[in-house]
Specification:
This protein has about 230 residues and is an alpha/beta fold. The strands form two sheets. Strands 7-8-9-3-10-11 form a six-stranded mixed β-sheet. It has a five-stranded antiparallel β-sheet with strand order 2-1-4-5-6, covered by helices on one side. Strand 10 and strand 11 form a beta hairpin. The relative contact order is 0.19.
Length: about 230
């Protein structure tokens, strides 16, 4: 077995008869922050969904932290057992749930004991600097606050691997810097491996240890940072 956090060998995903990803080989080391860049339609989000078990590969093999997760179209490890946090594009918050209810739902779904839910919710809100926001509804949050709540929800299951799909979205420069700084601090504190998708490789280059460029579902280039730069808010 590999010591990689993520290992893909010959992974290919199709929609109907159209190949949208692969065949693709990729290895992500534990603790790495991998930035995956590319234009819209290049296969970036499909790559994340395949890793998470939300898109079933047509061919290839996927391992997560040495555990087989899929072999061809067979799912060997269910999505909920993969210990993955997924920050979806735009946050995808539930508009009818307050911050507290959002996190309580995610915590219960991840198997957190009932007696621990309130404590863990407070911990998550503190991690993303939203303490005191328990009663706020998503529609009353700023763009940056909403993304931080979505990040807290992604961390509810204590993931080892965090998948980020265009997490900075339409945020302005100041909010982007704030969220990047929080992501960097949490990655170090929680010892996370991160696969971070973006159309703009410069937006998160300060955090990345390596950058891949996808074109038409294939790896078209790779660059490695000597050392990730510190993000200053």
């Amino acid at each position: 077995m590999s010591g990689a956090a993520v290992l893909l060998r010959g992974i290919a995903v199709e929609a109907g008869k159209t190949r949208i990803l692969g065949p693709l080989d990729l290895e992500v080391a534990p603790g790495e922050h991998l930035l995956v860049a590319g234009r819209s339609g290049s296969g970036k989000t499909t790559l994340l969904r395949a890793i998470a078990g939300l898109a079933r590969p047509r061919a290839g093999r996927l391992e997560l932290f040495g555990v087989p997760a899929s072999e061809g179209p067979r799912l060997l490890l269910a999505p909920e057992r993969r210990r993955i946090g997924f920050l979806f594009q735009g946050g995808a918050l539930w508009p009818h749930m307050s911050c507290a209810r959002t996190l309580d739902f995610a915590l219960r779904a991840s198997g957190t004991p009932r007696a621990e839910v309130a404590r863990r919710r407070g911990e998550l809100l503190d991690w993303v600097e939203l303490s005191g926001y328990e009663g706020r509804m998503p529609g009353t949050l700023s763009g940056g606050e909403a993304q931080r709540l979505a990040l807290a929800r992604a961390l509810a299951a204590r993931p080892r691997l965090l998948l980020l799909d265009e997490p900075l979205g339409p945020l302005d420069a100041e909010l982007r810097g704030s969220l990047l700084a929080r992501l960097g601090a949490l990655q170090r504190e929680l010892e996370l491996t991160v696969v971070h998708v973006t159309h703009d490789p410069e937006e998160a280059a300060a955090l990345a240890s390596r950058t891949l460029r996808l074109e038409a579902g294939r790896i078209a280039g790779e660059a490695r940072e000597a050392e990730p730069r510190e993000v200053v808010r």
